[in-house]
Amino acid sequence: MKRKRSIIYTKPRSAPISFQKETLAFFILLILGILIGVFTAKQGNSSVLTQVESIFHSFYSARENQSIIISVLNSLKVSAAFWVINLLFGLCAIGMPFVAVIPTIRGLGIGLVTGYIYSIYGLKGIGYCLLVIFPGALLSFVPLIYAVSDAFKMSLYTFSSVQNNNSQRRSIDKIKIYLVRQMFYLILFITASFVDGIVNKVFAGLFTLF
Fold first, then answer.
1. 165 in the Ramachandran plot: left (φ > 0), alpha (ψ -120 to 50) or beta?
2. How many CB atoms lie within 10 A of CB 202?
3. Helices (DSSP H) in 129-167: which residue ranges?
4. pLDDT category, 210, cuts 50, 70, 90?
5. With bands split at pLDDT 50, 70 and 90, how would you rate the model's confidence at 160?
6. CA-CA distance, 97 to 21, in Å (whole number)?
7. Which residue has the higher pLDDT, 121 or 142?
8. What's the Cα-to-Cα distance from 143 to each of 13, 150, 179, 188, 205, rounded to whole Å?
9. Could you report how far apart the first and last alpha carbons of the chain are, in Å?
10. Cα–Cα distance, 51 to 54 (Å, whole number)
11. Which of 44, 47, 191, 199 has its CA 20 to 30 A from that of 183?
């Protein structure tokens, strides 16, 4: 009688930092940036608040009468700037620390504006943030976190390739996959910008802040 051979599943070796842990870490950095921005605005540093006030007034005045397409393009400019910087640092062997601060900087900007609006306009400011600023911003945060996580891993791989002299063919394949994934994230950024433009057109007129 033949004995049945048992099938043994071996757990694959995990990378030093898993994709999930990286994504969580960058999400925490994003939240940290938002909290720092809100705290800074609430503390009332005059020089910082003056800059934030100038930026927000320009933002509000420009968006009040602009078309959806212009709103979309202006929103996309911000996301595209972060995307391009992230893309380039991901291809750099020493890009890891620079990639890591991108979510914090993005969160810092949103936090400063949110803290300023709330400190000046109270509940009306919170309503403005919830209906006008947050929908597009939150949608853009998702591809940002994943794009940064992907760029961090690519930079780590590039650094390892330089150290270990990995095959050029394998490196080219990795870069192709990286670029395809980053293009997908760019499409998500564009989608978020369209939502931002539409939401701005629909709800911005409900608020009179000046």
1. left
2. 12
3. 134-164
4. low
5. confident
6. 16
7. 142
8. 27, 10, 14, 6, 28
9. 89
10. 5
11. 199
* Closest listed residue to residue 193, CA positions, set 81, 73, 83: 73
Judge if pTM exceeds 0.90: no
pLDDT-derived band of residue 207, with 50, 70 and 90 as boundaries?
Answer: low
Angstrom distance (rounded) from CA 12 to CA 15: 9
In the three-class reduction of DSSP (H, G, I as helix; E, B as strand; rest coil), residue 204 is classed as: helix
**Of the spans 15-24, 124-133, 161-170, 190-199, which averages the highest pLDDT?**
190-199
Average pLDDT of span 84-111: 93
Structure tokens at 93: 């062997």
72 alpha carbon, distance to own chain's centre: 17
